[in-house]
Specification:
By secondary structure, the protein is of the alpha+beta class. It has 7 helices and 6 strands.
Length: 173
C-alpha cells in the first residue's frame, strides 16, 4: 500500500516531502509517538524527534525504551531503499540497543548517509551481490547528551541476485 501511494505521489511532490509526511501520517509510525522533522532533498539526512507524553511514558515517567527503538527502527531501511532505487533490496537484519540515560525531555536523532557511503555500498554490492551494513545512531537531548544508541545491521543486495537466491532456496525446500 505504501509503495503504491508513494509512486502516485511522486508525480506531484519531491521524494523528501513524501518521506517526511508519509512517515508522520502513517499509522505504523505515528504509534511510535515520534515525528520526522527534517529530510534533505537527496534523502541522505533524516531527523526525528520524540517527546515524552502520556502515550510513551514508562512506569517511572520517562520515555519508554520501546518507543525509542520503534521510532528509529524503519528509518535507515526505507531511507536506503529510496536512495538506492529499484535495483536493490534492503532489509533490516538486527538492532542492538544501548540505553544510556532516561529520556526525560524531548530527544532527537539524525540518520545520515554520505555520498561516499552510498557509492561504497553500490560498489560493494556490485562486487559481492549482497552485503551487510552496520550503522550506528544515537538519540540525544537538547544538550547533546546521549540517551540511547542503536547499532543497526542492514542487508543490501542486487535485486536480480536476491530474486535468484530466493528461487534457489524455494527449489531446495
Amino acid at each position: 500500500m505504501y509503495r503504491v501511494a508513494t509512486r502516485f505521489l511522486e508525480r506531484f511532490f519531491k521524494p523528501a516531502t513524501i518521506y517526511r509526511y508519509g512517515f508522520n501520517w502513517s499509522p505504523m509510525y505515528r504509534r511510535t509517538t515520534a515525528k520526522v522533522i527534517e529530510v534533505s532533498d537527496d534523502l541522505h539526512k533524516v531527523v526525528i524527534t520524540l517527546k515524552p507524553n502520556w502515550k510513551n511514558r514508562n512506569f517511572v515517567g520517562t520515555i519508554f525504551g520501546g518507543s525509542m527503538l520503534s521510532a528509529t527502527d524503519p528509518i535507515y531501511m526505507i531511507q536506503l531503499m529510496k536512495i538506492l532505487g529499484e535495483d536493490y533490496v534492503v532489509w533490516d537484519k538486527s538492532v542492538e540497543a544501548h540505553y544510556k540515560r532516561p529520556g526525560k525531555s524531548r530527544i532527537f536523532g539524525d540518520f545520515i548517509f554520505t555520498s561516499e557511503e552510498i557509492n561504497k555500498i553500490k560498489d560493494d554490492v556490485s562486487l559481492k551481490n549482497e552485503i551487510s551494513l552496520v550503522k550506528t545512531m544515537s538519540l540525544v537531548d537538547a544538550n547533546q547528551n546521549i540517551i540511547a544508541t542503536f547499532i543497526k545491521t542492514l542487508y543490501i543486495a542486487d535485486k536480480r541476485f536476491y530474486k535468484e537466491k530466493l528461487k534457489q532456496r524455494g527449489a531446495n525446500n
